[in-house]
Structure prediction request, 46 residues.
Amino acid sequence: MKTLAFLIFQVVYQIESSKVYEELQSKYSENDLLTWEPPEEYRKNF
Prediction:
């Protein structure tokens, strides 16, 4: 029973994350992503 719930969760998660990815792709062109500057918080971590 647990494995079935886990499989359903995995499928839903995959669908949701691909939707989000497609939204990001449509919002930003590749050029915008290449010139994107990370916020200060991210720079401090690396």
